[in-house]
Amino acid sequence: MLQQTINNLIHDFSLVQLYVKNNQQAGFSDMTRLLESLSIQMFKATHNLDLKNKNFLFPNFPAIDLADDAQRTAVQVTTNADSKKIKHTLKMFNEHKLSRDYDTLIILGFIECSRSKALPTFCTVLNINDLISLVTDRNDDDLAQDLVDALQQHSDFSRVHPYDDNNCLEIVLRCIDRSAIKHRMACEGSYADMIKGLNEITELISKGTIGRKQKGKSIDSFSDPKIQAFLTAVRNAISQIVAIVNQCRDASSGLVAIDADQLGEIGRHKSYIIEKANEMAQQIGSDLRMQVI
What we know:
The chain is an alpha/beta fold. It is 57% helix and 11% strand.
């Protein structure tokens, strides 16, 4: 699911950049609070930094905006980190002797940045693509999701420009490709684990979230009626499975006793979901192929 999460991350970053750029062109140049607040969460995810906003503590703090004093790392956030801005930041950093407190200075150019060959060893200039590349290289879906969550907290981008249908469908397909669906009922382990997995698929289809974390988009946000019909069918089949398990659950002990006919019915619902999921994967050109195990 990592590639799909990265696609959503690129989508959201692009929208923030466009939002900031348009506000600048319209004369609303003070995007400082938005960018600083967002950067605190971004660098927590990518660099494990616990940044504090120095401007909140000391108005017009020189040279830097954010800092993790414990890790001796300072961050300057700017829309355009051109050569002039970089030189000025370094000059102020040196004039105020901030090297006594910080070993590392990161300058983030949120929209654009220049690559200077004359940077001191303690200084790094980054742009948004650098952060995305870092997440991609780490091959960590949770890390990518942390950044998506940070961006989502600052605006509901899905209302401005919804995620791509096929990308979000593949997220659902890869969520379906799990033991709760693929395991034969004769091999099923914990029914509680199976129901938990099924409920997560239902949540992803209904709300676009898993555990309230944004993963894709809700069924109502898909524009393709074929995808909506597929998601509705999967959700209905899962509801039937959950209903059978609940009917067979002893209220006092919580134990589940399912007879052979009911096991067969659940198996048929699972096979139906897998069949339809494979058909949809083929239609969108996904290499995902599921089978009962």
